[in-house]
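Incident review: delayed structure delivery

Summary: a single-chain prediction request sat in the queue longer than the usual turnaround. Root cause was a stuck worker, restarted by the on-call engineer. No data loss occurred. The affected request and its eventual output are reproduced below so the record is complete for anyone auditing the incident later.

Affected input:
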Amino acid sequence: MKKFLPVDERTDVGPADPLEGTAAHPDSQRPDVAIVVPVNAQADLQVVRPLLDDVAKYDGPHSIEKILVVNNFPEGQEPPEVEEFRRLGLVVVAIPDVRRPGEAVGFSARIPGLRAATAKHAVLFDADCRVPNITALINWYVAQFRRGTSAAYTRVRHRDFYDHPSVRAAFAIHHTARWVKRNILGIPTTRGSNYAVTCQEVIELYEQGLLADEMNVGPTVKRLKGRVAYSSKRDLTVLTSGRMWDQPVWHRILPHFLYRLRYNLRVLPVRAGVARHTGRENDPVRVYRNNRPVRKS
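Output delivered after worker restart:
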């Protein structure tokens, strides 16, 4: 029987494959970690600012480079905020359209940020996240990588959602399913709101056609690269926006659960060409107004 470590500090073990510094970027000159955040130019240019404020509160010993991947804007019409962010000392990669067939657009947007990073490791947040204790979180991530971990993630909870029993029931089902995957099935449950990776390893896996969504990063890294660590400690919690959950959802719970189950079965197997199995070729472009989703009538 497989023995699991305590949930607060368990490690999903795969083959170790540590990467050394290169002549161009020796480890002594690299930032300790990069923070990479995709920014949807149609929704997140202002939403990302509180997250940047959270990151600015880091007061630990490690050096951080901050990378925004601004995307989803008309060709030749770069948002003025791009230059503003650069003046603030952020690295900004501006790409009008990052979409690729079969890939979750949020995940596709992370790849240019990983390529731009000079740090060996990167922490990946969403633009609408909040990080209550950025110092504890970054320190924990750096500690995991120094122990030889390839990827890591921590507890995620929701904020800014419609407080209704149906919404809370949907969240409870979501977290229960993740607990089962992580603790019973041994499947790392990485998600876009909050996880960290070894940049070059993820780029290699992506170029081999093995990655198309956040959820298959953990299982693929575990199988092919190295250890995946997890912590459920409360001071490491990241809060993700519940802006999509802005109304009662009793009618959506069962269809959404069945969709996610089928999606997991298609996407979690570690295999080349995984983007062909996601069914995401026709994902709509999400539109937000006043930080709320705009739904078609």
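Verification: Confidence is low (pLDDT under 50) at residues 1-23.
Action items: add queue-age alerting; document worker restart procedure.
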